[in-house]
Design brief:
This is Caspase family protein. By secondary structure, this protein is an alpha+beta fold. Helix content is about 20%, strand content about 45%. The protein is elongated.
């Protein structure tokens, strides 16, 4: 009967419970078997998917290159390979780039670098994902759009092509080479004016940062034991650039800091001003975090509120770890555990402290002497940063010829406040135009005065007091002289100038200055030193005020 009805009797046992006989329809068993098979397939598929999801977390890769020797006839660099080592250490300590994903070439030629790029490209094709990011750092000689490596040349175009073709979401190329700004002109990259501001968006694309412009030298410093740019970039990644104080350094923060400090460090350098350049092709949301100093094994906090210049020196090796201009408030640097000497630039010389940075811990350095030294230095130099001021106003000056006791006119001055060298932190360029009419003998005299000056300044609240030694030239035109032709004279002058400035608003100020000195004027009997005094009242406008001064 059951066989005729298409039913079968199946027996199954549940161990440890009880036994029973169940009747199951054949179609129902087929459906059950199919479900078991699909569930097994789903488990087989979901297992690798979950593993891939875990593995899909963003990873960081780095290729670091340093070569001291360039082409024949080029002076050997002193610190290119040391800079590459410094950058590798920073990337591994605070940049979360593990050693197994870091390729380092210290001392290489073009062929070796090409082979390394080829091998790295093959590895990335297998292991990298579109969520990863890649950093290429190169320190070497360069010129005419190529890297100069041990007598060979590698076009910068090859590095940019490698970066653009890498199977990663974000690629960053940093070139610390002379005239490396050529690379930032390459097709497909959009210029960005400094300082940059990035929109908070999904970040994807490519970035090229060069240590110098297309026609500038990338300079090394014996005092820093490295290049200006790499030193300041490394210090910034260790935490000096963390303007938001969130324990992370973004691409924008790092570039802003390295740009400002490199520009300031090379302002009076024999090699000329060095301006790091920046080009990018970035779209979307989010920020690119280059380093996470709060994750470092050792941390050093400079707990002095007042801005100041600090040196961090490793006690055992004597190596300069960081030379930084700290802004307002405390600053935390990620450093390797160990002993350090900290030096704060004071009014005369440095104040020094010794500290021991623990493993997996933070040490804080501060105190009244350091705070007072920082305040004294800040007051002496007139603020934490350099500034450029344009001032215009009327002036009254004593005459240097008979019949013209005084002459009035207009003064225009360009004043820069920022350290030049010890004791001199103000410089100025002045141009004055004056006109007067003589009494007794009628004539008209026009004066054009140009002078350069430099000296110290002191700041107290909204008031700034300055002194300067000035030298220049005075051009004199005399016309409308009865029965005589017009006359012209060019005379040298020297002055001592004192001034006071009151800051009225954020960029506006009032300036009062007075000068006394002399002019070597020509007379019928020869040349004589004629006393000269002047006073001016001007309105000033701050064209620029930097965040990181010297």
């Amino acid at each position: 009967m059951r066989r005729a009805l298409g039913l079968r009797v199946l027996r199954f046992t549940v161990p440890g419970l009880f036994q029973r006989t169940a009747e199951v329809r054949a179609p129902r068993r087929w459906v059950l078997g199919l479900g078991v098979r699909m569930f097994a397939v789903l488990l087989a598929v979901m297992g690798p998917v979950r593993a891939a999801a875990v593995e899909e977390a963003p990873r960081r890769w780095a290729l670091v290159v340093g070569e001291n020797q360039g082409l024949a006839g080029e002076e050997r660099l002193h610190f290119a390979e040391a800079d590459a080592q410094r950058m590798r250490e920073v990337l591994q300590e605070v940049g979360t780039v593990p050693p197994e994903r870091t390729v380092t070439l210290l001392g290489t030629d073009a062929a070796t670098l090409r082979d390394a790029l080829k091998g790295f490209r093959a590895r990335l094709a297998v292991e990298a994902s579109s969520r990863d990011w890649l950093l290429l750092y190169v320190s070497s000689h360069a010129g005419d759009g190529s890297l100069h490596l041990r007598g060979t040349e590698l076009p910068m175009r090859e590095l940019v092509d490698f970066l653009k073709g890498a199977p990663v979401g974000v690629g960053l190329l940093i070139l610390d080479s002379c005239r490396s700004g050529v690379a930032t002109r390459l097709k497909g990259l959009k210029p960005v004016a400094a300082p940059i501001t990035m929109e908070a968006s999904d970040l994807e694309g490519r970035v090229v940062i060069s240590a110098s412009g297309a026609d500038e030298y990338a300079q090394e410093s014996d005092a820093l034991q490295g290049s200006f740019f790499t030193h300041h970039l490394a210090a910034g990644l260790r935490g000096a650039a963390d303007a938001s104080r969130d324990g992370r350094v973004t691409l924008e923060e790092a570039y802003r800091y390295a740009y400002a400090r490199t520009l300031e460090s090379t302002l009076v350098s024999p090699g000329g001003v060095q301006r790091p350049t920046f080009r990018m092709d970035l779209r979307g949301r989010g920020e690119l975090v280059l380093s996470e100093p709060q994750q470092a094994r050792g941390r050093l906090t400079l707990d002095v509120k007042t801005p100041g210049r600090w040196l961090v020196v490793a006690s055992e090796s004597g190596a300069l770890v960081a030379e930084l201009e700290k802004g307002e408030g405390p600053t935390t640097l990620a450093v390797a555990p160990g002993a350090y000497r900290l030096l704060l630039r004071a009014d005369e010389g440095y104040l020094e402290r010794s500290v021991l940075v623990p493993l997996n811990g933070t040490v804080s350095v501060g105190g009244t002497p350091l705070e007072e030294a920082a305040r004294l230095r800040l007051a002496r130099k007139g603020g934490a940063g350099s500034s450029l001021l344009l001032a215009v106003g009327p002036s009254l000056t004593s005459g240097i010829v008979a019949g013209l006791s005084s002459i009035s006119g207009l003064d225009v001055r360009l004043v820069r406040e920022g350290r030049l060298f010890s004791g001199v932190d103000t410089s100025s360029l002045g141009l004055a135009v004056r006109r007067g009419t003589g009494s007794g003998v009628s004539f008209q005299q026009t004066e054009l005065e140009l002078r350069l000056g430099a000296g110290p300044h002191w700041k107290h609240g909204a008031w700034t007091f300055s002194g300067a030694l000035e030298a220049g030239a005075l051009a004199i035109f005399q016309a409308r002289i009865p029965e005589e032709e017009a006359r012209f004279g060019l005379e040298p002058l020297a002055l001592v100038t004192g001034g006071v400035r009151l800051d009225v608003r954020s960029r506006l100020s009032m300036l009062l200055s007075a000068s006394a000195g002399g002019v070597m004027a020509k007379r019928d009997s020869g040349t004589a030193l004629v006393p000269r005094a002047s006073a001016s009242l001007m309105v000033g406008y701050a064209l620029y005020h930097g965040d990181h001064g010297g």
